Amino acid sequence: MRQRAERLGLDTSHFAGQRRWAGRPPAAYKSGLSGLRPRSSKIRDAGTAIAAAWFLLRGCSPSIPIEPTHYDLLVSAPDGIKRIQVKTATFNGKDGWVVQVARRPYSAGNQARLIPYDSKSLEFFFILDGDLNMYLIPCEVIAGRVTLVLRCYTTYIVGNAAGLARRL
Questions:
Q1: How far apart are CA 140 and CA 125, in angstroms?
Q2: pLDDT on residue 22
Q3: pTM attached to this predicted model
Q4: Could you tell me the strand order of the sheet in which 73-77 lies?
Q5: For the purposes of burial, counting CB atoms within 10 Å of the CB of 157, is it exposed (0-12), middle (13-18) or buried (19 or more)?
Q6: Which of 67, 102, 120, 140 is the most exposed place for a label (fewest CB within 10 A)?
Q7: Would you say residue 32 has pLDDT above 70?
Q8: Residue 87 and residue 156: Cα distance in Å, rounded?
Q9: Confidence band, pLDDT 50/70/90 cuts, at residue 152
C-alpha cells in the first residue's frame, strides 16, 4: 500500500511502523547483530563464505557441493568451471602462518594418514591466513605437499578480508 501511495505522490509519513532515525540508529539497535564483534576463532568457519564472496565480487559464480567431495567450491570462471579447495591457516609458527593442504582418506574415526591432493581433482587452493590475507594458489604449485609456510607464497596473495572483520 505504501509503495502505491508513494507512486501517486501521496504522503506516507503517518503510516505506522515507519522508522525515522535522525542520522543515528537508536541505542537498542546496537545491542542486536550490529554490536557483535568478529572473533579470530571463527576464521575456519568463515573461510568458504569469504572465498565465495571473493569470487562473486569478480563475476564468477561459486557453488557449494551438497555431497562430500575433494573440493569446497565449484566456480564458474571465464575459462570454465574450476574446483577450489578452501583452507585456513590458524597456526602462526616461528616462520609465519602454516596451513595444512592435505586431506585424510574417508575412514572411521578420521585417523588415517594425511595425503596430498591430486592436481587432477582440483585447480586451485583458496587460503585464508590469520591476518586475513587471501591466497589463490594453483594446485600444481603445491605439488604433493601436505603443509605450507605461507610466507613463501606471498606472490599468490589476492587481497585481504580485514574489511569484513573490523575490530577483530
A1: 10
A2: 56
A3: 0.76
A4: 61-63, 73-77, 80-88, 124-128, 133-138, 157-160
A5: middle
A6: 67
A7: no
A8: 14
A9: very high
Angle at CA of residue 50, ends 49 and 56, nearest 5°: 90
CB atoms near residue 100 (< 10 Å): 15
- Which long-range contacts does 63-69 make (Cβ < 8 Å, 24+ apart)? 68/106
Residue 29 is predicted with a pLDDT of 56
Residue 106 CA to residue 56 CA, distance in Å, equals 31
CB 103 within 8 A of CB 87: no
- List of residues 6+ apart from 91 with CB closer than 8 A: 97, 98, 99
Q: Which residues contact residue 36 at a Cβ distance below 8 angstroms, ignoring those fewer than 6 apart?
A: none
Name the H helices within the chain: 2-7, 27-30, 43-56, 139-142
Q: How far apart are CA 122 and CA 120, in angstroms?
A: 6
Q: In what order do the strands lie in the sheet with 91-93?
A: 91-93, 96-100, 147-149
Report the DSSP pairing between strands 61-63 and 91-93. Answer: unpaired
